[in-house]
Design brief:
The relative contact order is 0.13. Helix content is 91%, strand content 0%. It is built from 2 helices and no strands. It is rod-shaped, with a radius of gyration of 35 Å. It has 148 residues and is an all-alpha fold.
Length: 148
C-alpha cells in the first residue's frame, strides 16, 4: 500500500516554526506593554501623593520652600507621566504590529494545512479507485476462469 507524502511538508514545518516564533514575540510584546502600563500607574500614584501633600502644605502653616519643592515634584511627575504615556503608546503599537504578523503567519500555516488535507483526501480517493479497479480485475479474471 502506498504511503501519503505531502510534498510541501517542509514548507508547512517552516510555517509552524514561524508561527511559534511570532507567538513568542507576541508574548514578549504583551509583557512589555503590561510593564509600561504598570510604570505609568506607579507614576500616577506618586503624582497623586504629591498632589495630596501639596494640599496639606497649603492648609497648615505655609512653608514656601516646601510648597515650591512639592510643585516642582508635581511638574516633574507630569513630565514623566507624559513620557511614560508615549512609551505605553509605542508598546501598544508594537503589540498591534506583532498581532498582525502573527495573524498573517497563522493564515499561511492554515492554508498549507488545508492544502495538505485536500491532497490527502485526493490520495485516499485515488487509493480507493485503485483498490476498486484491482477488485474488478480479480472478479473479472475469476469469472473468466470459471467459464473456461
Amino acid at each position: 500500500m502506498a504511503k501519503f507524502q505531502y510534498k510541501l511538508q517542509s514548507v508547512l514545518d517552516i510555517k509552524e516554526k514561524l508561527e511559534s516564533q511570532e507567538k513568542i514575540a507576541f508574548g514578549l510584546a504583551a509583557a512589555k506593554l503590561q510593564e509600561e502600563q504598570e510604570i505609568l500607574q506607579n507614576l500616577m500614584i506618586q503624582k497623586a501623593g504629591y498632589d495630596k501633600k501639596a494640599r496639606k502644605l497649603v492648609e497648615g502653616s505655609i512653608d514656601l520652600l516646601e510648597i515650591n519643592i512639592c510643585r516642582k515634584a508635581i511638574e516633574t511627575m507630569k513630565t514623566r507621566i507624559r513620557s511614560q504615556m508615549i512609551n505605553v503608546h509605542k508598546a501598544e503599537k508594537q503589540l498591534d504590529l506583532v498581532r498582525r504578523r502573527l495573524n498573517e503567519v497563522m493564515i499561511e500555516r492554515k492554508t498549507y494545512e488545508k492544502l495538505r488535507e485536500k491532497k490527502f483526501e485526493e490520495f485516499k480517493m485515488e487509493l480507493a479507485y485503485e483498490e476498486k479497479k484491482e477488485v474488478d480485475e480479480l472478479v473479472s479474471y475469476t469469472y473468466h476462469q470459471n467459464e473456461e
